[in-house]
Amino acid sequence: MQEGPRPGHRPDGGRYEIRITGHLDDRWVHWFDGMTFDRRDDGTTLLTGDVVDQAALHGLIQRVRDLGIPLVSVSRLDTPDPTQTKKETSR
C-alpha cells in the first residue's frame, strides 16, 4: 500500500545550495547539472541551482562523494511554509 505525500512535502524539488570544501574549477560545471559555482574566500564552493526532485538532489550529492570532496552542507533555499496560503486581493 502506497502512502500519500506528507504535509508540506514537495516531491518536485526546489532551489538548493550545496557547500563543499575547496574550490572547484569550471571544468566541473557540466558534471553538476547547471548549478552555479561561487568560490568563497573561506575556501569553500557554493553550488546553487534548481533541482527537479529528490532523486536529482541525491545524484548531485553522490557526485560530490565520487570526487572525494568533503560535503559541508546542503540547504534548501525555497522551503515552502505549508501554513501560508496565497490570498487574492480585490481592487
How would you describe what is shown here?
This protein has 91 residues and is of the alpha+beta class. The protein has a domain at 27-69. Helix content is 15%, strand content 29%. It has one helix at 54-67; strands at residues 14-21, 36-39, 44-51, 71-76. The longest helix is centred in the middle third of the chain and has 14 residues, at 54-67. It is globular. Mean pLDDT is 81; it is low at 84-91.
| Largest β sheet strand count, sense and barrel closure | 4 strands, antiparallel
How many β-strands, per DSSP?
A: 4
Distance between the termini: 47 Å
Quick one: overall form?
Answer: globular
Residue stretches low in confidence (pLDDT < 50, at least 5 long) are 84-91
Proportion in helices: 10-25%
Order of the strands making up the biggest sheet: 2-3-1-4
Number of helices: 1
Q: What class do helices, strands and sheet pairing give?
A: alpha+beta
Element-level helix/strand string: EEEHE
Mean pLDDT: 81
Radius of gyration: 16 Å
Q: Report the β-strand fraction as a percent range.
A: 25-35%
